[in-house]
């Protein structure tokens, strides 16, 4: 990364602020630059146009020799990610505690950094390099109307900010025990995930995990109260395995092998709670989250019905065939997919992007896509029904393609017949119900007929065409933005990601928009397939980091999985493929 070779002394910033007291807001641009504030360097990278615009972008650099954070905390890639995450959270907490906040008009006085939720993601809000630590944050430079409040700005930049940096980026100010726990717990989680394949597993849930959340809008672990208390997870003895953690030692828990696994049980007994923990198990979690030891194969994809989504030339024929009016399904396209066609497309697109584990909840699935029971088969002959339900493909997917399924099923008992494992949840406690399921199948044999008429073949490669990606909006050659966690605006195209449930942070969504542009520039232009383009994108991010995505220096990006990049591209209504 290119940096100025020298920095102005902090006194120069004081003098510059004194000169612009009371002037128009644009005079703030004169203070852009790099300043030596003693133990760290302050870089004012971009000054906002007015107090109502997006806050100014700043960064603070501290050399490792000054910060004195022990070198072993940055000795590997995963440790650096964990260290950066911890420092980001400490910077955010210090800003909330030490910055006096709003003072003036618009965003005046605010100091913010892009912190995360319960997941530990690779970000560029704090970057740990070989020689230094860089924290990137935003600050609303104070103004009354559009007149500069330079004294308040001096308080922010020369008093509050140094206190925030001192409290968050220097080892002497940090809780050494909490820092060590954060880094080593993250490393242990990654080690568990890395063991899954070699141990013949697709997921693992450690005993003692707290899976229930506080609410649908609060992802923190449920707290005990007078009328309820979270039940710690405990593996059925017959399904228990023991995995190794490099720092915390061995851990016992539920090992989910490849194949077809059913999670069943009565309503409100924890079926979907367990599945949601597995969805998020592709990410590492902060200590105390309760799901630290719930890890899932990194290619796991949550599949659901998605009425109204756009689909472009996806071969859904393994699930949907012989549509009325002769509409082809080997290159199926629509601007308004139904529940069943959207769920079929979501599966094929996940396989094309490299998924080897599908997570499905019947509550968010199209019923006719999941199963046709014997009575419906008797009423509607197969030649009149274009859908081959998932129940007739799940075992085949688990065979030679090696794609496992974990399904929440509470109402379709025919799935018991194809299951390799059956977990029955009762009062949030897991029981191995495979033997009971076999007895039920034997006692109540199904009379439905399998409806798969031909064998599965790998989904064909698709090549997104360059004309799919137009980032222009108005006079801007490139205009890409995001709205929260679920929407990207790419040029004039709105991409709806509401059904992409494994996106966990708005910073990932911001990165997705930039990743689509990078994909179009470096891959689509040379005719790469979607899979080839994703692999190239992954290599570039591994080698160059998130800064490679943005033409300007920012600190509000978090790395999404390549599977979510594929999901976003597939949901572009401007997508054209070959």
What does this structure look like?
This protein is globular. The chain is built from 14 helices and 28 strands. The two termini are about 40 Å apart. By secondary structure, it is α+β, with helices and mostly antiparallel strands. Strands 1, 2, 3, 4, 5, 7 and 8 form a seven-stranded mixed beta sheet that branches. The protein has a six-stranded mixed beta sheet with strand order 19-22-23-16-24-25, sandwiched between helices. The mean pLDDT is about 95. Helix 1 runs antiparallel to helix 4 (about 150-170), helix 12 packs across helix 14 and helix 13 (about 530-545) crosses helix 14. Helix 1 (about 10-20) links the parallel strand 1 and strand 2.
Descriptive terms for the model:
578 residues; alpha+beta; seven-stranded mixed sheet; six-stranded mixed sheet; 14 helices; 29% helix; globular
Tell me the structural class: alpha+beta
Please state the overall shape, judged from the principal axes of the Cα atoms: globular
Share of helix among residues?
Answer: 25-40%
The main sheet comes to:
7 strands, mixed
Number of strands: 28
Proportion of beta-strand residues: 15-25%
Helix run count: 14
Low-confidence stretches: none
- Can you give the mean pLDDT? 96
Q: How far is the first residue's CA from the last residue's CA?
A: 38 Å
Compute the gyration radius: what is it? 26 Å
Layout of helices and strands:
Elements: E1 8-9, H1 10-19, E2 33-36, E3 41-46, E4 56-63, H2 64-67, H3 77-98, E5 111-112, E6 119-120, E7 126-128, E8 132-139, E9 143-144, E10 147-148, H4 150-169, H5 176-195, E11 203-206, E12 213-215, E13 218-221, E14 240-243, E15 251-256, E16 260-265, H6 271-280, E17 284-285, E18 294-296, E19 300-303, E20 311-314, E21 332-334, H7 339-352, E22 357-361, H8 367-370, H9 374-379, H10 394-398, E23 404-408, E24 421-426, E25 429-432, H11 434-443, E26 480-483, E27 487-490, E28 493-496, H12 506-522, H13 530-544, H14 562-570
Parallel strand pairs: 1-2, 16-23, 16-24, 19-22, 22-23
Antiparallel strand pairs: 2-3, 3-4, 4-8, 5-8, 6-17, 7-8, 9-10, 11-15, 11-18, 12-13, 14-15, 20-21, 24-25, 26-27, 27-28
């Amino acid at each position: 990364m290119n940096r100025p070779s020298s920095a102005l002394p902090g006194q120069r910033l004081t003098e510059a602020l004194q000169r612009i007291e009371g002037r128009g807001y644009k005079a703030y641009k004169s203070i852009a630059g790099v300043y030596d504030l003693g133990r760290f360097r302050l870089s004012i990278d971009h000054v906002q146009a007015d107090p109502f615009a997006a806050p100014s972008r700043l960064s603070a650099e501290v050399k490792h020799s000054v910060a004195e954070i022990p070198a072993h905390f940055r000795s590997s890639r995963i440790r650096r990610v964990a260290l950066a995450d911890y420092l980001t959270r400490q910077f955010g907490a210090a800003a909330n505690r030490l910055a006096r906040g709003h003072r003036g008009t618009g965003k005046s006085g605010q100091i913010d950094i892009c912190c995360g939720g319960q997941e530990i993601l690779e970000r560029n809000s704090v970057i740990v390099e070989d020689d230094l630590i860089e924290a990137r944050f935003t600050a609303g430079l104070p103004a009354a109307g559009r007149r500069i409040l330079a004294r308040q700005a001096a308080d922010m930049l020369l008093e509050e900010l140094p206190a925030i940096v001192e409290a968050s980026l220097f080892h002497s100010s940090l809780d050494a025990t909490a820092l060590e726990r954060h880094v080593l717990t993250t490393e242990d989680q990654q080690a568990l995930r890395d063991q899954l394949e070699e141990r013949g597993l697709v997921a693992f849930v450690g005993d003692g995990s707290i899976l229930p959340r506080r609410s649908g809008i609060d992802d923190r672990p449920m707290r005990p109260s007078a009328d309820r208390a979270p039940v710690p997870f405990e593996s059925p003895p017959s399904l228990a395995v023991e995995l190794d953690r490099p720092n915390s030692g061995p851990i016992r828990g539920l090992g989910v092998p490849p194949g077809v696994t059913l999670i069943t049980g009565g309503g409100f007994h924890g079926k979907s709670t367990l599945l949601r923990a597995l969805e998020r198990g592709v990410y590492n979690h902060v200590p105390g989250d309760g799901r630290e030891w719930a890890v899932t194969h990194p290619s796991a994809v949550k599949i659901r019905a998605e009425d109204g989504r756009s689909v472009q030339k996806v071969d859904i024929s393994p699930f949907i065939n012989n549509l009325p009016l002769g509409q082809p399904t080997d290159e199926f396209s629509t601007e308004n997919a139904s529940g069943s066609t959207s769920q079929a497309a979501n599966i094929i697109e996940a396989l094309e992007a490299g998924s080897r584990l599908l997570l499905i909840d019947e509550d968010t699935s199209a019923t006719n896509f999941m199963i046709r029971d014997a009575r419906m088969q008797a009423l509607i002959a197969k030649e009149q029904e274009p859908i081959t339900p998932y129940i007739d493909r799940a075992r085949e997917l688990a065979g030679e393609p090696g794609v496992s399924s974990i399904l929440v099923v509470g109402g379709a008992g025919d799935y018991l017949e194809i299951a390799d494992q059956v977990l029955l949840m009762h009062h949030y406690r897991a029981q191995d119900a495979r033997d009971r399921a076999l007895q039920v199948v034997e006692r109540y044999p199904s009379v439905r007929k399998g409806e798969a008429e031909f064998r599965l073949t790998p989904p064909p490669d698709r090549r997104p065409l360059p004309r799919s990606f137009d980032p222009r909006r108005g006079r801007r050659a490139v205009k890409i933005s995001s709205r929260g966690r679920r929407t990207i605006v790419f040029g004039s195209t709105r991409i709806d990601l509401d059904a992409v449930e494994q996106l966990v942070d708005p910073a990932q969504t911001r990165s997705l928009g930039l990743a689509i542009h990078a994909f179009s520039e470096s891959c689509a232009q040379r005719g790469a397939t979607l899979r080839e383009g994703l692999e190239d994108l992954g290599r570039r991010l591994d080698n160059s980091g998130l800064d490679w995505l943005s033409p300007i220096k920012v600190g509000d990006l978090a790395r999404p999985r390549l599977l979510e990049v594929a999901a976003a591209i597939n949901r572009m209504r401007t997508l054209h493929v070959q």
